[in-house]
Amino acid sequence: MHRKIYLLILCLITFSKIFSQQPKTLSEKDQKKEERKQHIAELIKREEDGALIYDKQFLLSFKLNTDGWSALYEHGKYKTISTTNTWFAEFGERKSHKEEKITPTDLSTGFPVGNPFVYGKQNNFYYFNIGIGQQRLIGGKGEKNGVAVSAIYGGGFSAGLLKPYYVTIVDPNTNATYDVKYQGPGDTVFLVYPISSAGITKGIGETKFVPGVVAHAGLRFDYARYNELLSALEVGISGEFYTQSMPIMVNSPEKKFFYNAYIAIEFGSRK
């Protein structure tokens, strides 16, 4: 009898040790939390090592240029620990430094009337660029909240788009108003009698396409906390050359080559 009791107690102790050694099963929620912690720890470790390790990179950018503005999309493919191959698409507007916007006002009340217009503007100059390039890491993130510095360069095809700039004028003889564009040297009506802009959509059907090439180079400062995010500031220079002169303002020299400096705010992600 005592022997049976002893064996029973021994079995209970053995089973309790076995079950106590079994790992606890985490709930799905706790498991996701644990995986997230491990992922963040791995990202921090990579940042401390100064590396940006990923497969693909996606980026949206808004640029302020010395002669206009542009918006850019960039897609990157990881090549080596320091090099990423990229392709980009960019749309923007180029302006002359001589542009001066005039807001028409009622002389009796002083209140604005009509649409503001740029005196002497001949064409709106838009462009669409597409090309390839590279991002080369110069300095990695030496610490958790460091900044990764990369050299950015690339080039490709540029589609210059010249849209005639229309203004609304008033006929001094009849006081009738109508929309006109610049007709060339000797056109005094366009310069003497404008009272407002005819609107941005006026003249779209007359847009002229001029092919060209583009190249750019800059420095990107990525200050995002984790490698899976991209938040950066970029500064650089850009140049475009077109097969024909691109007139923007009346009585200003027409140019084929345009260059500018830019600063850009960029956001994106990595996978």
How would you characterize this protein structure?
With 271 residues, this protein is an alpha+beta fold. The chain has one domain (43-270): Porin, CATH 2.40.160. The protein is 17% helix and 46% strand. The strands form 3 sheets. It has an 8-stranded antiparallel β-barrel with strand order 1-2-3-6-7-11-12-13. A 3-stranded antiparallel β-sheet has the order 9-8-10. Strand 8 and strand 9 (177-180) form a beta hairpin. 24% of the residues are buried. The model has no long low-confidence stretch (mean pLDDT 84).
Q: Give the overall form.
A: elongated
Low-confidence stretches at least 5 residues in length (pLDDT < 50)?
none
Give the helix tally: 3
Helix proportion range: 10-25%
Mean pLDDT: 84
Distance between the termini: 68 Å
Strand order of the largest sheet: 1-2-3-6-7-11-12-13
**SS-based class:** alpha+beta
Run of helices and strands: HHEEEEEEEEEHEEEE
What is the C-alpha radius of gyration, as a whole number of Å? 32 Å
* Number of domain modules: 1
- Please indicate the percent range of residues in DSSP E strands (runs of 2 or more): over 45%
The major sheet is characterized as: 8 strands, antiparallel, barrel
What is the number of beta strands? Answer: 13
Overall CATH architecture: Beta Barrel
CATH topology: Porin
Any idea of the CATH class? Mainly Beta
Mind sketching the topology for me?
Layout: H1 2-21, H2 28-48, E1 56-65, E2 68-78, E3 83-94, E4 101-102, E5 117-118, E6 123-139, E7 148-164, E8 167-170, E9 177-180, H3 189-192, E10 194-197, E11 208-222, E12 229-242, E13 257-270
Antiparallel strand pairs: 1-2, 1-13, 2-3, 3-6, 4-5, 6-7, 7-11, 8-9, 8-10, 11-12, 12-13
